[in-house]
Amino acid sequence: MSVQKIKRNYRKTKYILYKETLVDFKEHFWAFLGSFIGIGLMAYMQSKTLLHSDVVFLIGSFGASSVLVYGAIQSPLAQPRNLIGGHLVSAIVGVTVAKFAPDILWISAPLAVSFSIVLMQVTKTLHPPGGATALIAIIGSPKITNLGYWYVLYPVLTGVIILLIVALIFNNMTANRSYPNHKKYHIIRKRITNKFKNSLS
């Protein structure tokens, strides 16, 4: 990557972060509502299916993901590819490392995080909370570590799908919010909406 490209990406990221931190009560309202419902759905599933002591659905990295997908929706790190891919790659890495070095924490913990970062970079799915997802597979409660590769599907994949569906709804409720930042998605969404409206009229 050239120095000019790095500087351009830095300026873009700096502008996005500046824009996201401006005081805009409407933006704050939708960010609050989206994150409340996203995390709330997972908490509800947790309370209805598992004991409160066995917190499986609510892994900590989902809180960090919520900051990105509801509070910094234009960030490249918050896009669906990054959200889903980053968590899945990291979960697979975390479980794999846990199987090979289950009792050597000082090796397994840094290995899981470091490998997940590199694989997210390689697959272009960099999502900072993914590092926590990999780490939780190592240091989580016995309920989580005993899941093995089921951890990848449940709670990780289940959780990110919930976060994504809620983000697609609440991040597009106003003209000022647009998520994801892929134009093709919004073109397809408008076509489907128009067809639905025409069928009702």
TrEMBL record:
Tell me which UniProt keywords the record has, alphabetically. Membrane, Transmembrane, Transmembrane helix
Q: Does the keyword Thylakoid apply?
A: no
Regions crossing the membrane: 28-44, 56-73, 79-97, 149-170
Q: Please state every residue range assigned to the domain named HPP transmembrane region.
A: 23-180
Spell out the protein name for this chain: HPP family protein
UniProt source species: Flavobacterium fructosi
